[in-house]
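Predict the assembly for these two chains.
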Amino acid sequence: MLKDNRIRVIIGHYGSGKTEFSINYAIKLAKEEKNVALADLDVVNPYFRSREKHGLLKEHGVKVVSSYVKGSGSDLPAVSGDVLGPLQDKSCNVVLDVGGDSMGARTLGRYKDYFIEGEYDMFCVVNGNRIETQTLEGVINHITSIEGTTRARVTGLINNTHLLRATTVDQILKGQELCRRVSQATKIPIKYTAVVESLIHQLPENIEGTIMPIKMIMREAWM
Amino acid sequence: MDKVLMKGNEAIGAAAIKAGCKHFFGYPITPQNELPEFMSRELPKIDGVFVQAESEVAAINMIYGAAGTGARVMTSSSSPGIALKQEGISYLAGAELPCVIVNISRGGPGLGGIQPSQADYYQSTRGGGNGDYRHLVYAPATLQEAVDLTIEAFDIADYYRNPVIVLGDGMIGQMMEPVEFKEPKKRDLPDKDWTTTGTKRNRKPNIINSLALDPAELEKHNIKLDKKYKTIEEKEVRHEMYKMDNAEVVLVAYGTTSRIVKNAIDALEEEGISVGLIRPITLWPFPYKAFAEIPNTCKALLSVEMSMGQMIDDVKIANEGKLPVHFYGRSGGMIPTPEAIMEKVKEIWGGAK
């Protein structure tokens, strides 16, 4: 039950796991809603962008909008004008997968008119194992700088603290503690806890927000 | 220190700083940009110097100058950018200047593309520069190994007074993995009595140069360098063996490809096919001697690369004509799948019976 506002903007430190969260979220959303689009606004990374998985997402009923430049071989900072379609279509559930840091979030400035209170959510993905977002100050700095660039407010935190295949429940709880402190300081609620599927059954009961099971879609089996 | 999640390019930058590198000269190119970006942010914090040069050629010559002071220096680039640096690398080797050069390689030839590739094997191990020179080439397969080898590369460079290349394909630069920064084992390093940091009127001036117009002098210099390279070949070669016992086919792969190969080997084992891996960690010196340990059960070798076939030359040299040598590769930024490698092994295995 993903009862968030129609436009979901996923932001955070680069390498925090925004794309993996966005894809898993969009696939889950497409099970509940008919009209789901994911816009890949990543102008920061040359590899591991959600557009690489457009085939898989299409199979799950998610429309992918990215660059006009086809394929994975380009690192031009180009975003398609087609992003406006799903933003303007009030029947469409949109996930905006944004590039990392305030640098990547600059693409959002162009869509400011659509970020109307109550019509959008902006979720900040927090991985407490990334060097710059290990501390309360680090996470708040990221939120402040991204809010400044996008001129939109963060409406929810996502605890996505992990070490890929080496993730433990303790890691997730460590991230939760960090997110709780950020939440206390900023009054931004923790909306989701993202957890790799294999650990779901080991979780204690005191997990904040909705648990979002994560399949590692961007990561090949050998990685 | 706890493990943290880092992107390969950042991790290599952090490792360099851990190793005492305070000076970085470079020029942007995908897929290694996070490395200079990291250095530009972190080096000023430790009183270091980051310079974005006007070109790769300028950057490698800045390395030449800075290395001459005895400071620990690094540059990084990707394939066509490293091609531009080749002249400077030859000069650095000729003048015996230590430095670390990182190549996060992409598809070629020419400008090629931005996706991962291992088509710089010749460039790294045979040298695109002129003259009889060699330099060590580390080829990490994980980010932890990239961190550890980058730290070690600075010691090796200082110890032998020679450039060292850390070669990771684009995947090593772009992927994320948990890493930790352990205190490096310290080598006993010779004093840097050759630097051009001022005589203070206590000694004769040191001269750093790669020009020698007297052929007899130049030959003497070449013999001295060659002796050094022979020592490196003897002492610094490194490799990993994987599931070699009773292997019927032995694969040879490095970097990202070796990880895919390991997955294929594990899957083949479940199907009852014994396959081993020789993974060169140093590409030069190449682990030729490791091939002497290939078990009698082995019927064929298979070199797997993200190229049209370059390392296979060294595999053939190491093999000394004993076993059939096969090749499987993808190029241009395409990544081999474990399934395709398994198919190729089965084809060889079936045919070799």
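Chain B has two domains: 4-235, 239-352. The longest helix of chain B spans residues 215-235.
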